[in-house]
Design brief:
Layout lengths: L1 E6 L2 E4 L4 E9 L7 E6 L6 E6 L6 E3 L7 E6 L4 E6 L8 E8 L12 E4 L3 E6 L1
Parallel strand pairs: 2-11
Antiparallel strand pairs: 1-3, 3-8, 4-5, 4-9, 5-6, 7-8, 9-10, 9-11
Length: 125
């Protein structure tokens, strides 16, 4: 079992920056990729960014490429999402998740087994 806790969300003005974190406890028994998803009001949850165990593979939603950076510190069991040049359309609840270590590394929601409770990010215009 893996327990995930997100933190660092808040209110920021458009053009600003924010870093959110995801602390993991427990283990699925082997190395695992992780990812960030978000859900805006009235919309479906969408993939934002993903990272492999050692960080050599990352992927991003097209609309956040060049603005968001995903990284992790396995020694601290923590994953981060650095968000820059935030836009009002980035407003959402952001969730971190653990990728099924036995599934192919595809950052699709169905391949993620464990989820955090989410942290709210609000970008004002």
């Amino acid at each position: 079992q893996v327990h995930l806790v997100e933190s660092g969300g808040g209110l920021v003005q458009a053009g600003g920056s924010l870093r959110i974190s995801c602390a993991a406890s427990g283990s699925p028994g082997t190395t695992y990729a992780m990812g960030w998803f978000r859900q805006a009001p009235g919309k479906e949850r969408e993939f934002v960014a993903g990272i492999s165990w050692n960080g050599d593979t990352t992927d991003y939603l097209d609309s956040v490429k060049g603005r968001f950076t995903i990284f992790r510190d396995n020694g601290k069991n923590t994953m981060y999402l650095q968000m820059r040049n935030l836009k009002p359309e980035d407003t959402a609840v952001y969730y971190c998740a653990v990728h099924n270590p036995y599934a192919p590394l595809v950052f699709n929601e169905r391949n993620f087994d464990y989820w955090g409770q989410g942290t709210q990010v609000t970008v004002s215009s």
